[in-house]
Here is the input.
Amino acid sequence: MMFYYKFIDEEHHPVRGQGTIRLGTFNYYKQMETDNPISDSEEGRLHYEVNALYQGSDAMSRIPGLNQIISGEGTLQFVDCTVVVPFPNCLLFCCSAFQIEPNHEELLNLAIKLGKCSYYKIENINKFSSLLLRSIIESMKVSDLSHPFGKNWTIAEINNLQIGFLQKAIQYGDKHVVIGSSDEDHSGLEKQIEHVFKKSLKYQDDREHRIVFFINSQAHQNALININCDYLDLELNPYKQLII
Here is the structure.
């Protein structure tokens, strides 16, 4: 059994403060001041080291995300280089997970380390995640989503949008992926999303458990859709019974 806690400023406490739960995006965390303990300029980015020759569509499939930022026809060639690929902006809810329930002093110490002064406990992380997903569907607007080809959305395309989430503990370590002739294929939606659960070792004391909400388009080969807003504030009401 795991115990989940969210560390926040007192004014943002969903019960005693503003009555909302904020979901940030990759951009939200990247744009924070560098002296903020939860700021991460590398959030949503992955470094690919290419040590073999790849050309054409195979080069793009080996490095997820390139097909979303490169358009047109032609030949791409990679060898002995590093490619930094930004992941499409997704909504995140981050909390800390403990195998043994911490006491108040331990929680306050971690809150201070994260630049916060308050916290709350999440009773059922799976139900909590599902409620967040429902609230996102009810709150988000089409204008919050970037079309993968810079056009206006058609009704048919809107009907082919899907929203889902993955949640798991962050893996702390090297965020570089080495692409070589013997490597497995790193393409595909699931493989791409797995990369956002990796962070630098300097954040390992945060014990982060992350819930990533993503939107993809079936009309465009399951391309991940970029979210324009930096954050989304959701009303507390559906979550009151899950927050202590």
In short: The mean pLDDT is 80. The CA atoms of residues 138 and 234 lie 10 Å apart. The first helix runs from residue 26 to 30. Helices lie at 26-30, 56-62, 66-69, 104-113, 125-139, 155-159, 189-194.
